Amino acid sequence: MAQNPVQIFGTKKSKGARAAERFFKERGVKIHYVDLTQRPLAKGELTRFVQKFGLNALLDMEGKAYRDAGLEYLRVTDDRLLEKMLQDPGLLRLPLVRGGKVLAVGEDAAAKAAWAEMVQ
């Protein structure tokens, strides 16, 4: 079992964040849930995920926030996009999960495999 708590960054509206929370609770893993609507993600924390997955992997291009921000039509620098993601958690593909040095984004099969690695 993971000795340190797993951090889940999400919002209460995020189906994926709720699924991650349930996954870890069912396995008796202590979690630290960070609601991004209450406490914004730190730039350093987001940068850690960007370095591993790339900026586009973190961007929820299917979401309402992406459309509302007009990002499908705008050309923005990576730095500006990072700032927008920090300001609006709706732009992020959630959940962002960190267990020790293992990081995961979203709730797809690869993310769930990473979650399983966190509980070993």
From the spread of the alpha carbons, the general shape counts as: elongated
CATH class: Alpha Beta
End-to-end distance: 5 Å
Number of helices: 6
Order of helices and strands: EHEHHHHEEH
- Per DSSP E runs of 2 or more residues, the count of β-strands stands at 4
Bin the helical content: 40-55%
The fourth-level CATH homologous superfamily is Glutaredoxin
The average pLDDT value, as a whole number, equals 92
Radius of gyration: 14 Å
Given the helix and strand composition, which structural class is it?
Answer: alpha+beta
What name does CATH use for the topology?
Glutaredoxin
Pfam families: ArsC
Family: Belongs to the ArsC family.
Protein name: Arsenate reductase like protein
Organism: Deinococcus proteolyticus (strain ATCC 35074 / DSM 20540 / JCM 6276 / NBRC 101906 / NCIMB 13154 / VKM Ac-1939 / CCM 2703 / MRP)
Task: Tell me what you see in this structure.
The protein has 120 residues and is an alpha+beta fold. It has one domain (6-118): 3-Layer(aba) Sandwich (Glutaredoxin), CATH 3.40.30.10. 43% of the residues lie in helices and 15% in strands. The chain contains 6 helices and 4 strands. The chain has helices at 15-26, 43-53, 55-58, 64-68, 78-87, 109-118; strands spanning 6-10, 31-35, 96-99, 102-105. The protein has a 4-stranded mixed β-sheet, sandwiched between helices. It is elongated and about 45 Å long. The N and C termini lie close together (5 Å). The mean pLDDT is 92.
Notable traits:
120 residues; alpha+beta; Glutaredoxin; 4-stranded mixed β-sheet; 6 helices; elongated; Thioredoxin-like_sf; Arsenate_reductase-like; Arsenate reductase like protein
